[in-house]
Design a protein that fits this description.
By secondary structure, this protein is an alpha/beta fold. It has one domain: Alpha-Beta Barrel (TIM Barrel). 34% of the residues lie in helices and 13% in strands. Strands 1, 2, 3, 4, 5, 6, 7, 10 and 11 form a 9-stranded mixed sheet that branches. Strands 8-9 form a two-stranded antiparallel ribbon. Helix 2 runs parallel beside helix 11. The radius of gyration is 19 Å and the shape is globular.
Length: 351
């Protein structure tokens, strides 16, 4: 069995743009571009310890709830699917239908605790694939990849690590096995207490790595507020043990000083998503990635949707954000495949 001492990477060795050999290029686009990445996975109790027994994908019966919204705006989401979804007809069948209609793309999403082989302890530390022994991580990646190809007929080219558990070992395997896009980097995210990755050195700009073989499309996670260049330092202070004791982050957000916001209808309000989009757009960002978990499309499977009213609010938030992005901002929908081809060629221009 693997252990913390045999981990491939850890918060003590944080990923940085320099470690990944990131090559940033200006995105020459006069209009902002929106990507949608859906973490498409089994249902489990987020408050309970990890278990291999939670493999239900019943929420996938309601995948059309989100897809119908995206269809109205000509958005083709990327459903990154994990082993439970990829191996149960109830999970992958709706997505295969969407893909056949050119309504979506299908990628890969590794949840180590429910993906064979099962040679590691089931705990928080090992729920991050980057903390597995390298040979075990690649065997799980291979199992997941083969399951997706076998059951959906799609060869995935986009990967997103479950719990953002990305490591350099992961990236090397992806590049060597035909993947061209990773979507695991969660900018500004500090390491978690149970051994999660440290992404504080990143912002939301896309970049190339692995000597041009792999494109990174990060989550959109940034700051809004009137504090200017002090937004990030003040947020870091608010996240310190003392800051957390006095609830400094909430105070700063209510005062409009600084607020760290992820572009997700699960953890951010519509006003927050609009605010961070406007802030990053002013800073020159042109690529925005909206993300959520597939079980949130049904009631009772995630902390974000616990009632019918919360479900409606969640769906309305997605719809209203799309209306804002494609209406007020005059944005355009994109996909990793479409954008990467232009990005690699140095032609990421949209009028």
């Amino acid at each position: 069995m693997s252990s913390p001492s045999s981990a491939a990477s850890s918060p003590l060795r944080p990923l940085t743009p320099e470690v990944l050999g990131a090559e940033y290029h200006d995105v020459r686009s006069t209009r902002p571009l929106l990507f949608v990445i859906v973490d498409t996975e089994e249902e489990f109790d987020w408050r309970a310890p990890f278990t291999r027994a939670s493999t239900s994908v019943r929420a996938m019966r309601h995948a059309e709830r989100g897809q119908a919204i995206f269809d109205r705006y000509a958005v083709r989401p990327t459903y990154v699917i994990d082993y439970c979804v990829a191996t149960q007809d109830e999970g992958y069948a709706p997505l295969v239908e969407f893909a056949r209609g050119n309504r979506c793309q299908i990628g890969a999403h590794l949840h180590p605790w429910v993906t064979p082989p099962f040679d590691e302890p089931v705990d928080g530390f090992h729920s991050y694939a980057c903390n597995l022994a390298p040979d075990l991580e690649v065997r799980k990646l291979a199992t997941l990849h083969e399951a997706i190809v076998s059951h959906t007929g799609v060869t995935p080219l986009v990967y997103k690590a479950g719990r953002y558990g990305l490591g350099t070992n992961t990236l090397a395997w992806l590049a060597d096995h035909g993947y061209d896009t990773d979507a695991s980097v969660n900018p500004t995210l500090p390491p978690s207490d149970d051994g999660g990755p440290d992404f504080r050195a990143f912002d939301s700009r896309p970049f190339m790595m692995q000597s041009g073989r792999l494109f990174e499309l990060p989550l959109t996670h940034g700051y809004a507020g009137w504090a200017g260049s002090l937004k990030a330092p003040l947020q870091a202070m608010a996240s310190s043990p003392l800051g957390e004791r006095v609830k400094a982050a909430g105070i700063l957000a209510r005062l409009g000083v600084t607020n760290r916001i992820m572009l997700s209808p699960e953890v951010s309000t519509l006003d927050e998503m609009k605010a961070v989009t406007r802030s990053l757009l002013r800073d020159g960002l042109r690529t925005f990635s909206l993300t959520f978990h597939s079980p949130s499309l049904d009631v009772g499977h995630t902390p974000y949707v616990r009632s019918a009213s919360q479900l409606q609010q969640f769906l309305d938030g997605i719809d209203a954000y799309c209306a804002f992005f494609f209406g007020e901002l005059q944005g355009l929908p994109s996909t990793p495949a479409d954008f990467r081809s232009k990005f690699v060629a140095g032609q990421a221009q949209h009028s």
